[in-house]
Amino acid sequence: MFQGSMVALITPMTSSGQVDNAALEALVGFHLDNNTDAIVAVGTTGESATLSHSEHQDVLKRVVEIVDKKIPVIAGTGSNSTSEALELTQAAYKIGADAALLVAPYYNKPTQEGLYRHFKALAEGVAIPQILYNVPGRTVSDILPDTVDRLAGISNIVGIKEATGSMDRAREIIERCADRIDVFSGDDPTAVELILLGGKGNISVTANVVPQLMHDICAAALSGDREKALALDNIVKPLHQNLFLDPNPVPVKWALARMGYGHEDGLRLPLVPLDESLRAGLLEAMRKTNVSFS
User: Which of 33, 106, 135, 291 pairs as cysteine with 163 (C-beta 3.0–4.6 A)?
Assistant: First the structure.
């Protein structure tokens, strides 16, 4: 249903922290012009945790309108509250998103049974394709393979974004569930290996900055061309490394501001602008990857 390079889109903001609609429109256009395969809007990279519900819906609506069905739009609608996630997912369905991406509930530390019931309730509550999102390093909530296997039997749960970076975990889920759901990488440095194992694509932070290159990397991996995929991935490795030296999305928003999309101080507390000690390294990574910036 979905495959290739799917950008985990930032939400551009002004220096005062307001959503920058002009920059958002330009950024979406940048992705449409550079072969991004799908856009994940208002997800965790899009700072969903600090957007109000009305802002969340306004940003998603604008992205859906700009994209105009040229590529799929996947809405981040997860929450640590099942009722809140249900409300956000219902809104995404009404707005016209093609799917919902649902991060594992954070802070609550639910059991595997709690995770199963949470995602089952969302799938039964909204008739939209849904993608699980497992990122225990951020949520302290790990959707284990047994639970993924159970959830894969629900018809509108169509995929999982697996962001542990563990190839053993990815391999197990693909072997057990790939006939029922698609597996996507959520970890840029290991995405090529996951796709070569049988994954269907990468939900990528790095794609914000180099969409065409990330599309080409995913296309090569999906075609089984290991040599080409790894050669292209080697080009982008400095970006993979430098975009995660401060909490995401701080570095990528700083990089995009240098490219003309939003403001480098366009963040909401408790996030703060990129540490000055990290800026030269990120600029050098951008130069090495032939990114144009001012």
Answer: 135
**Domain that includes residue 162, residue range:** 4-288
Nearest to 203 by CA among 173, 171, 160: 160
**Which is catalytic among the residues 93, 106, 116, 133?**
133
Query: Is residue 294, in this structure, part of any structural domain at all?
Result: no
For 250, counting Cβ atoms within 10 Å of its Cβ (0-12 exposed, 13-18 middle, 19+ buried), the class is buried
Mean pLDDT of the chain: 97
**157 marked as part of a ligand binding site:** no
Would 293 be classed as within a structural domain?
no
Q: Over pLDDT 70: what percentage of the chain? A: 100
Residue of 161, 200, 253, 261 with catalytic role: 161
pLDDT digits (tens, 9 = 90+) for 230-283: 999 999 999 999 999 999 999 999 999 999 999 989 999 999 999 999 999 999
Residue 283 lies in a domain: yes
- Give phi and psi for 221, each to the nearest 5: -65, -40
The answer to whether position 222 is within a domain reads yes
Number of domains in the chain: 1
Average of per-residue pLDDT across 124-151: 98
Cα separation, 274 vs 260, in Å, equals 16
44 assigned binding-site residue: no
- Which CATH number goes with the domain that contains 151? 3.20.20.70
- pLDDT of amino acid 237: 97
- Residue 185 pairs in a beta bridge with 162, 202
